[in-house]
Design goal:
The complex is a heterodimer of chains A (435) and B (325). Chain A is built from 14 helices and 18 strands. Helix content of chain A is 30%, strand content 23%. By secondary structure, chain A is an alpha/beta fold. Chain A has two domains: 103 residues, Roll (Urease, subunit C, domain 1), CATH 2.30.40; 307 residues, Metal-dependent hydrolases (TIM Barrel, Alpha-Beta Barrel), CATH 3.20.20. In chain A, helix 4 links the parallel strand 9 and strand 10. Chain B folds into two domains: 144 residues, Aspartate/ornithine carbamoyltransferase (Rossmann fold, 3-Layer(aba) Sandwich), CATH 3.40.50; 146 residues, Aspartate/ornithine carbamoyltransferase (Rossmann fold). Chain B is globular. The chains are: A alpha/beta (435), B alpha/beta (325).
Chain lengths: 435, 325
């Protein structure tokens, strides 16, 4: 547990109503004092960090990452994945169950939580599968999984194709609780598609994934959730029709939340023109209209949080023709800088809103939301909003390098991340300057 | 030009230059000894990940007429299943020191990808459903030979556009050469967004009489993983180019192999308006021109191509062939 005084950083915590320079004192891993700049003294032995000209936020929470454990440790593991998270300013991440084997049993979940307690640099929450083996046929033992700490359930990577099957899971939620998070895609429409269906897919001769493959299932499952009075979460929305479907359901009182990823907020299918396999993800990058609808959804509250869908793949898996490459981009290390550079700096979204959307994801699944308030556990991130850096130029903390922002120069550098009261990350040059 | 990856990369002048050179090579086919030493000592590797007889043998013949050594490497589906990646295959075959690799794969963009992994010149002989640039060049050459120019021609491409790399390359090439292109086929086989390539879209043959050239595509039985049309019978009833629909002023083209009785009726295949065999003939000379272009053509103009001074046929009409890729 760390004793740390951050002097004079501009603190932005929308939930706490703070947007001004402050001193923040952390003692034994808790926020001990928030005071006017220059008002706090460092206790003996505490580290002092000069925050002048820098920003301090509540650390981010990512409700949607793939840490690849068990079974795909060549892509990522609990250590490298959470190192990437800390480097991106995250204090907590929630891991998806589409591993090998699938996380669908209580013993599997227990061993994974034990491993995370040992290997992870920031706390990790787990979402086991809705159906055994993600096969969409039988429910997992949801009640026992909840007792073992399941935050909720998801078949992420795949939809629950059968409405009847999903309905059973929603009914069963009355017994055991746990948000049911849904990857929405009708496979009879998405088929063998590899990118958004539109002008670019027509030009490239690639099989398209139409927007309606997502939005029809979003609408269907909002209807099911409304009927069963269940609590659902729509993962990685990509299409404007999906945003509209969620907004409509919310207006009708359906308990639905949803997320958008930095890549869908910042890139479009134009980025696929060069057939860069880092631009291949599911759901795919869509049109400028879709992108704008996602931004509007963040602004008007339809979209509850930003989630990276961090999906690492080994270099040789991605260094193949586009159609053969697996879906996914990494995102933990670039999420804040990408959204800051692409949306905050140009004035599209206010900084406070972005901080809120980057921190709120865990709350949807019952995790505490980081706040810079006296007495709360210290989960903070110190950022230099003037620093430019080239993504990947110094490598990645993640084991994989399939980042859709690779090679771009972004503004906004994470300098220090404190997660659950401990320092989880120090940017190298920043750490040296302290020494 | 150091590679031929896509029609997208070529401008009109480059297409004309290749066609002019092809025309100058036509004379070679008329000789008793159908061979010139232009690429003697060069190695051309045919790397085909999909079944192909026509395109592969056309490239083979083209390379041999230029005196290159040819190695055919058929990477069947099973060699992919054995686990060797495309990159590993290219690095392995690089040990043979090919000067050019002619590659066909079922994956879009693979020719360009391969060009990053080898110093050899890459010629795209079909990358998935994306492009088949030498087919488009030979089709342009065929039409130029007949009409002198494509300017102002109305060309209808009819059939399964969705699965057709020939369609995509030809839409681009015909338009670059000044033609107007209309694609026509069942709505299930016209890709959404295809208008973005600049072509018009029709779902019936009602306006077909306005076409100067009809380019029929093959109904690809091998891609019948889904029922794209209710039946071939119904397809033929609505989209077959037959004696009733083909007007006397119209030229009929097809990339082969033809399904008689499906996209074309037997009578039109055998009619004098069909130039299908001329297309095949053009295939060899155009591929000679492409091989020459990527292996010898980018040398300084005036210098003798290859070490065989005076032996190669530098086409008189050809300007300096120094377009950077």
């Amino acid at each position: 547990m760390v004793d740390l005084l951050v002097r004079g950083a501009h603190v932005v915590d929308p939930r706490a109503g703070i947007d001004a320079p402050h001193d923040v004192l952390i003692r034994e891993g808790e926020i001990c004092e928030v005071g006017a700049p220059g008002s706090l003294e460092a206790p003996p032995g505490a580290e002092v960090v000069d925050g002048a000209g820098r920003h301090l936020f509540p650390a981010f929470v990512d409700p949607h990452v793939h840490l690849r454990v068990p079974g795909q440790e060549h892509k990522e593991d609990l250590g490298t994945g959470t190192r990437a998270a800390a480097a991106g300013g995250y204090c907590t991440v929630v891991a998806m169950p589409n591993t090998n084997p699938v996380v669908d049993s209580a013993p599997g979940l227990r061993s994974l939580r034990d491993a995370a307690a040992r290997d992870a640099r920031v706390p990790v929450g787990f979402m086991p599968a809705i159906t055994r083996g993600l096969a969409g046929q039988e429910l997992t033992e949801m009640a026992e999984l909840r007792e073992q700490g399941a935050l909720g359930f998801t078949d992420d990577g795949r939809p629950v194709v059968s409405a009847g099957m999903l309905r059973k899971a929603l009914q069963y939620q009355r017994l055991c609780g746990g948000v049911i998070a849904l990857h929405e895609e009708d496979p009879s429409l998405s088929g063998a598609g590899v990118m958004h269906e539109g002008a670019i897919s027509a030009l490239l001769g690639l099989t398209g994934i139409p927007s309606v493959s997502e939005s029809t299932l979003v609408a269907r499952d909002c209807a099911l959730a409304g009927y069963e009075e269940a609590r659902v979460h729509m993962q990685h929305l990509s299409a404007q029709e999906s945003v509209l479907a969620v907004a409509t359901a919310k207006a009708q009182g359906v308990q639905v939340s949803c997320e958008a990823s930095p890549h869908h907020l910042l890139l479009t299918h134009e980025a696929v023109r060069t057939l860069d396999t880092s631009m291949k993800m599911n759901p795919p990058l869509r049109t400028e209209e879709d992108r704008q609808a996602l931004i509007d959804g963040l602004r008007d509250g339809t979209i509850d949080c930003i989630a990276t869908d961090h999906a690492p793949h080994a270099r040789d898996e991605k260094e193949v023709p586009f159609e053969q490459a697996p879906m996914g981009t990494t995102g933990l290390e670039t999420a804040f800088a990408a959204v800051y550079s692409g949306l905050v700096e140009p004035g599209v979204l206010p900084l406070g809103l972005v901080v809120e959307k980057l921190t709120s994801g865990g709350g949807l699944f019952g995790l505490p939301v980081p706040r810079i308030i006296r007495g709360k556990p210290a989960n903070v991130v110190l950022v230099d909003l003037t620093a430019d850096w080239e993504v990947g130029a110094e490598g990645y903390a993640s084991r994989s390098e399939n980042c859709c922002f690779g090679g771009r120069t972004l503004r906004g550098r994470v300098l220090l991340t404190v997660a659950a009261g401990s320092v989880a990350y120090r940017e190298r040059a920043f750490a040296l300057s302290l020494a | 030009m150091s590679h031929l990856l896509s029609i997208e990369d070529l401008d009109r002048a480059a297409i004309e230059r290749i066609c002019d050179r092809a025309a100058s090579f036509s004379e070679v086919a008329e000789r008793e000894i159908k061979k010139v030493p232009a690429l003697r000592g060069r190695t051309v590797l045919n790397l085909f990940y999909e079944a192909s007889t026509r395109t592969r043998s056309s490239f083979e013949l083209a390379a041999k007429r230029l005196s290159a050594d040819v190695v055919n490497f058929a990477a069947s589906g099973s060699s992919v299943e054995k686990g060797e990646s495309l990159k590993d295959t290219i690095l392995t075959l690089g040990a043979h020191k090919p000067d050019a690799i002619v590659i066909r794969t079922p994956w879009a963009g693979s020719a360009e990808l391969v060009s990053r992994w080898t110093p050899a010149a890459i010629i795209n002989a079909g990358d998935g459903k994306r492009e088949h640039p030498t087919q488009a060049l030979l089709d342009v050459h065929t039409l130029r030979s007949m009409r002198g120019s494509l300017d102002g021609l109305s060309i209808w491409i009819v059939g399964d556009v969705l699965h057709s790399r020939v369609a995509r390359s030809n839409i681009l090439a015909f338009q670059k050469m000044g033609a107007r292109v209309t694609v026509c086929g069942p709505p299930t086989l016209i890709p959404r967004g295809i208008e973005a390539l600049g072509c018009a879209v029709r779902f019936t043959l009602d306006e077909l009489p306005e076409a100067d050239v009809i380019y029929a595509l093959r109904m690809q039985h091998e891609r019948t993983d889904q029922a794209w049309v209710p039946s071939l019978r119904e397809y033929a009833a609505v989209y077959q180019v037959n004696g009733r629909r083909l007007r006397s002023h119209q030229v009929l083209m097809h990339p082969g192999p033809v399904n008689r009785g499906v996209e074309l009726s037997g009578e039109v295949v055998d009619s004098p308006q069909a130039v299908i065999t001329a297309q095949v003939e053009a295939g060899v000379v155009v591929r000679m021109a492409v091989l020459y272009e990527v292996l010898a053509g980018h040398r300084a103009p005036g210098a003798s191509p290859g070490d065989d001074a005076g032996a190669a046929p530098p086409p008189a009409s050809s300007p300096a062939a120094g377009v950077a890729r």
